[in-house]
Structure formats: structure tokens, C-alpha cells
Amino acid sequence: MSKAYKRTKYVKRYCVPDQIMHWMVALGFILLLVTGFMIFFKGPASLLTTEAGMAFRQGHRIGAILFIGAPLIYFLFSSKRWGFLVAFKWGKYDFGWLKAAPKHYFIGGEGMPPQDKYNTGQKLYFLVVIVFGLLLAMSGFALWFDWFNGSLGVWMLVIHDVSAVIITIFFGIHLHLTVFHARERASFNAMTTGWMEAEYAEHHHKLWFDKVKYDQMITCGERKMRKMKQVDQNKNNTFQA
């Protein structure tokens, strides 16, 4: 490990409950997406008459439990349960971001307005997931338990499918920008490790970075030492037990 890498500074971005909730929702949605795709194109007849169809239905339900259960548990037990309301708080910097984003992401260049912990694109994605996720969940339960028949049942199916398509489109954009877009990979790394490079945080989330840089920033070497201490502490706790 080079000295320069050891001196790279990081800020704490996410706590473990945040990470668990995020990845459970992501896993649940991917499972819903894959099984939902198969259900949509195979049709209801095969779902009732073949083992594969039944397996897709069960997998879809498991995905639904993860997609709904993880944020519900987080909301009930996390001290940051109201954090999702950030999706509804928009200001002048958000509208400036919307104006500058196409050039920044697809052509290149700077000029993006300062952002808080979540940038405008993330807020927009949160908003879509909250609104259409609720529609997806409610219509999904209605279809699962056959709450409605006739035209109401058909409307539940339409709402379910349209909500799924809209979330899938935004999920694809989110996946591209966080995983495959070279300039934004630090955001994905932050969700996997809990830490974000300070340089990236200052550039992309300056309003938030200025609030936390004095009490939540450490170097890579210090991160490694913390991890080693945590491992030793866990071993000691195991021996004492």
C-alpha cells in the first residue's frame, strides 16, 4: 500500500443499518424484476400449471418481502427513520443541478452547483421509489391476495406494471451512474464500505462535506487501524462469552 493511498482521506457516509437496508431493497427489487419479467411474458396459465411458474411466483413474493420489509424495519427501529423526507426538500441548487446535469454526465465538464448529502439526482430517484414503490406494493398485495375482481383487478394490474416500468427505468439510470460511470464510482464504494473519499465528497456534496469534515474525516491508514481494533474487540468479546 503506497504512502499516498494511506494518506487518502475519507468521511463517514453511511452507517451499517443504512447499508443493510439499501442492499436488501436492491436485492429484493432485482429479484422482483427478474421474476416479474418471467411472469409477465409467460402468462398466468403457466404459473399455475408448471413447477417453474410456481417457482417464479414464490421468488416474486420473496422479493416483495425484502423490498417492503427492509425499509419498514428501518423506519420502525432507526433513529434516521425520517431521512427519506429529503426527497421532498428542493431548493435553488437542485434546479441548478437539473439544468447542468446533462452536460456534466454526458459531455463532461464542471459547473455543477454545490449539493448536500444527497444530490438532486438521488433525491429524484428517492422520490420515484417512494411514490411508485408504494403503488407497486399496494397493487402487488391486491394481486397477491385477490382483493379485487373485474375492472378493479385489471386496474391493479395496470398500476402494478406501470409502476414497475417507471422504477426499472430509474433503477437502470441509478445503476449506470453509480456502478458503470467511471467518474461516479466513489458513490458505489461508499455504499459498500460506509466511507467516501473526502476529495469526491467535497466536489460532489460540498454542502454536506463542510458540515462533517472536522469530526468524521480520517485517513486510509486510520481506517485500517480502526478495522483491526474492531476485529480484536470482537475476538475478545467472543472469548469472554
UniProtKB/TrEMBL annotation:
Keywords noted in UniProt: Cell membrane, Membrane, Transmembrane, Transmembrane helix
One Gene Ontology cellular component: plasma membrane
Compartments, record wording: Cell membrane
InterPro entries listed in its UniProt record: Cyt_b561_bac/Ni-Hgenase, Di-haem_cyt_TM, FDH_cytochrome_b556_subunit, Ni-dep_Hydgase_cyt-B
Domain Cytochrome b561 bacterial/Ni-hydrogenase: 19-194
Pfam family name, one: Ni_hydr_CYTB
Domain of life: Bacteria
Transmembrane segments: 20-41, 61-77, 124-145, 157-177
GO molecular function: electron transfer activity; formate dehydrogenase (quinone) activity; iron ion binding
Topological category with respect to the lipid bilayer: Multi-pass membrane protein
GO process terms (BP): anaerobic respiration; formate oxidation; respiratory electron transport chain
Family to which this protein belongs: Belongs to the HupC/HyaC/HydC family.
Name the UniProt record assigns to this protein: Cytochrome b561 bacterial/Ni-hydrogenase domain-containing protein
Organism: Tepidibacillus decaturensis
